[in-house]
Design brief:
Length: 312
């Protein structure tokens, strides 16, 4: 789908911004998902991708600021998961109005920031740093229990050693979820030892640049939880509380709670920073009393410890 282009005056972008392609490598200090990028053309046109949808707009530089004129026009493709949706919202919110612009002394990295939100960018031709100690942040893949193959058009090579010289033991398709067995930094690539989740697991090393943490939403769908337990629930107008099994998957500031009902069905609820956010069906009423979140959905009642639906 082609984004609609709105009318605006043409403003020139100053060096070293103009004519450059920049990769967004971090959003609010977290490693970016997908392949988000921004291009600044000399005539003031700004185009790019949030990692999900493409955008276009116009802007100009003023001293140490980047000024976006009007709103960016954005395509409307559905993002693959909630984490990408939230990343897109963060990028779209930041790229409005006047944005603080900062370059490093060598002109290969740039930071855009506004109202406590920031994007870290590197030029499209920025070379891979050969010394791991020069890297400013550990890739998110290093600390994630499950990883998703992303960011390449073909299959990902799984090797018997953390090196491009290692023998290829399997080829993994984009979108495949893997168990993380541990990661390490290398001279040209970072590597993670991963294992497939099928009945006959295959284990090997994959380049970390093509691995992204699996979102809490997808892990909850797959039944891969960070913690499990039982909580108090009342169902169908029954005043006698039951113990319902549950599982929680967390992701940054989000927690996805899946409650398994005696009927065999499941109720999925989303929490942000320990507070109830939404669920997928009827309207809910919510109250928090001390350290318990009480959620009522129709004739269902749930008492959920805040500690269980807090990130981390």
């Amino acid at each position: 789908m082609r984004p609609a282009i709105f009318c605006a005056a043409i403003f020139a972008l100053a060096e070293p911004v103009n004519g450059a392609e920049w990769r967004i490598v971090a959003v609010d200090g977290f490693e970016a998902l997908g392949e988000p990028e921004i291009r600044f053309d000399p005539d003031g046109t700004i185009t790019g991708s949030t990692g999900c949808n493409e955008f276009v707009g116009r802007g100009r530089t003023e001293a140490t600021s980047l000024v976006i004129d009007g709103n960016l026009a954005l395509t409307r493709k559905a993002c693959t998961d909630l984490a990408l949706t939230r990343q897109e919202a963060t990028i779209g919110t930041l790229l409005q109005g006047s944005i603080e612009l900062a370059f490093d002394p060598f002109g290969t990295t740039m930071t855009l920031s506004r109202d406590g939100t920031s994007l870290a960018l590197v030029t499209g031709d920025d070379p891979v740093r050969s010394d791991p100690s020069e890297r400013t942040a550990m890739p998110l893949a290093f600390n994630a229990p499950y990883l998703n193959v992303q960011g390449l058009r073909g299959n990902l090579n799984l090797r018997n050693a953390p090196s491009t010289e290692g023998e290829v033991v399997a080829k993994i398709t984009v979108g495949t979820m893997l168990s993380n067995q541990g990661c390490q930094q290398g001279a040209e690539h970072d590597w993670c030892e991963v294992q497939t989740l099928d009945e006959t697991p295959t284990q090997g090393w994959a380049a970390a640049e093509y691995l992204q943490p699996v979102s809490a939403e997808r892990r909850a769908d797959e039944g891969l939880f960070d913690r499990t337990g039982r909580l108090s629930c009342k169902l169908g107008g029954n005043n006698e509380p039951l113990d319902c099994d549950y599982g929680v998957a967390t992701d940054r500031d989000l927690a996805v709670l899946t409650v398994y009902l005696p009927s065999g069905s499941a109720r999925v609820m989303f929490f942000a920073d320990g507070g109830f956010a939404y669920h997928g069906s009827a309207n809910a009423t919510v109250e928090t009393v001390e350290d318990i979140v009480r959620v009522s959905i129709g004739d269902e009642r749930y008492e959920i410890p805040v500690s269980e639906v807090s990130p981390g």
